[in-house]
Specification:
- The chain is built from nine helices and 21 strands.
- With 354 residues, the protein is α/β, with parallel strands linked by helices.
- It folds into two domains: 219 residues, 3-Layer(aba) Sandwich (Rossmann fold), CATH 3.40.50.1170; 114 residues, 3-Layer(aba) Sandwich (Rossmann fold), CATH 3.40.50.40.
- The strands form six sheets. It has a nine-stranded mixed β-sheet with strand order 1-5-2-6-8-11-12-15-16, with helices on both faces.
- Helix 2 crosses helix 3 and helix 3 packs parallel to helix 8.
- It is elongated, with a radius of gyration of 21 Å.
- The two termini are 41 Å apart.
C-alpha cells in the first residue's frame, strides 16, 4: 500500500487529549497554488501554517496521504479497499479518523466504508471543501477543524459519533444517507430521509437519539467488491432497445432501476417481460426512487404492482449511492443469492425498518 505518514502533536508540551488520523485521498481540499498559479497537492507538513488554530484542539494528529492524490471522479473500489485497510491497520491506536475526499463521489465512498467496517465503535468523519484551502474564502478550514472535533469527541468513555458520517457546511449527516446536491455553494450534501446527526454553531449540538450505538465487538473489515452492477434510469419515452442494451449484458449480476415517485415504472408488457425474463435467469433487480426524499412502496399504485409480482426488490428509502456500494459488497462477499436476501435489510443504518 503506497502512502506517506506524518505525525503532528498540536498539544505540545501537554499530553494530547485524543489521537486522530487524517487520511488524505485527494480532492479540492488539499490544493494550493504554486509560484506559477498552478494548483498542486497540499504539503501537510505545513498544515499548522495554514491552520494555526489546530493547536487549540490539543490532539495528536497523524496524517496518511495517498502517494498519488486523486480526483474523486477517479475513485474505484480499489481505493475504498485502501482506505478500509488503513483504518483497520491503525484502528486500535487511534480515537477517530477524518477522511479528506473530493465531494463528487464522497457519498459513494462514505457508503462503501459504512458497509465495509462492521462493529464500528469509533468515528469515521468524511469531509472536504468546495474551495481549496489556499483560497481566502475556502470552506476547508472550518470543515477540517470541526471534523477533527467530532472525530475526537467523547460521551464519557465512548465516542460521541461511532459511525461513518459526512461533515460539511455546519452539518453532520450519516454517510450512507448522504447525497451531493450542490456544486456551486458550500452546502454540498443533503440527507432527505434521515435527520442530521449534529449541527455546528457556537457549539456542536449532537442529536444523540439518531446516532448509532458503538459496538462492543471487534472491528471486522469486509473488502471484496463485485462491480457487475448497473443502473437503468427510467424516463418517459424509454424504448425497448434502450432497456435491452443495459439488461442484456451477460456479465451483469444486479441491476438498479431508478423509478418514478414511490417506485413506479411503465406497465408496458414488453418492459415487464424483459425484467421478468432477466430475474428468472438470476439477475437481482433493485427498485430505487429517483426522488431524493421518500421511499419505494411497491404495489401502492398499479404501475408498481407488476414489479412486486415478478420479483423486483424494493430498495425502500436507500440512496442510489448506498444501493450501488452495498450491492457491490454483498455480491463480492456473499454471492447473488445471499445478496438478494440481505439487500433490503439494514446493515449500517442506510435503510429504514418497515
Amino acid at each position: 500500500m503506497n502512502y506517506k505518514t506524518l505525525t503532528i502533536n498540536t498539544a505540545l508540551p501537554s499530553k494530547p487529549r485524543a489521537k486522530v488520523m487524517i487520511i488524505y485521498t485527494g480532492g479540492t481540499f488539499g490544493m494550493v497554488h504554486d509560484s506559477n498559479g498552478v494548483l498542486l497537492p497540499f504539503d501537510f507538513s505545513l498544515i499548522l501554517e495554514h491552520l494555526p488554530t489546530l493547536r487549540n484542539l490539543f490532539l495528536e494528529i497523524t496524517v496518511i496521504s495517498f502517494e498519488d492524490p486523486i480526483d474523486s471522479s477517479n475513485i474505484e473500489p480499489a481505493h475504498w479497499q485502501m482506505i478500509g485497510a488503513m483504518i483497520n491497520e491503525h484502528y486500535d491506536r487511534q480515537d477517530g479518523f477524518v477522511v479528506l475526499h473530493g465531494t463528487d463521489t464522497m457519498a459513494y465512498t462514505a457508503s462503501a466504508l459504512s458497509f465495509m467496517l462492521q462493529n464500528l465503535s469509533k468515528p469515521i468523519v468524511f469531509t472536504g471543501a468546495q474551495l481549496p484551502i489556499s483560497e481566502p474564502r475556502s470552506d476547508a478550514r472550518e470543515n477540517l477543524i470541526t471534523a477533527l472535533e467530532i472525530a475526537s469527541a467523547r460521551n464519557g468513555v465512548k465516542a460521541m459519533v461511532p459511525e461513518v458520517c459526512i461533515y460539511f457546511d455546519y452539518e453532520l449527516i450519516r454517510g450512507n444517507r448522504a447525497k451531493k446536491v450542490e456544486s456551486m455553494h458550500f452546502d454540498a450534501f443533503e440527507s432527505e430521509n434521515y435527520p442530521s446527526l449534529a449541527k455546528a454553531g457556537v457549539k456542536i449540538d449532537y442529536n444523540e437519539a439518531v446516532i448509532q450505538a458503538g459496538s462492543e465487538s471487534k472491528l471486522m473489515l469486509h473488502s471484496k467488491f463485485d462491480t457487475n452492477v448497473s443502473i437503468l434510469k427510467l424516463f418517459p419515452g424509454i424504448n425497448q432497445d434502450a432497456v435491452k442494451s443495459i439488461i442484456g449484458n451477460p456479465t451483469m449480476k444486479a441491476l438498479i432501476i431508478e423509478t418514478f415517485g414511490s417506485g413506479n415504472a411503465p406497465s408496458a408488457p414488453w418492459f415487464i417481460r424483459l425484467l421478468k425474463e432477466s430475474i428468472n435467469q438470476g439477475l437481482l433487480i433493485l427498485n430505487i426512487s429517483q426522488c431524493p426524499g421518500g421511499m419505494v412502496i411497491q404495489g401502492k399504485y398499479e404501475t408498481s404492482r407488476a414489479l412486486e409480482e415478478i420479483g423486483v426488490i424494493s430498495g425502500v428509502d436507500m440512496t442510489l449511492e448506498a444501493a450501488v456500494t452495498k450491492l457491490m459488497l454483498l455480491l463480492g462477499e456473499y454471492g447473488g443469492e445471499r445478496a438478494r436476501e440481505l439487500i433490503n435489510k439494514p446493515m449500517a443504518g442506510e435503510i429504514s425498518n418497515l
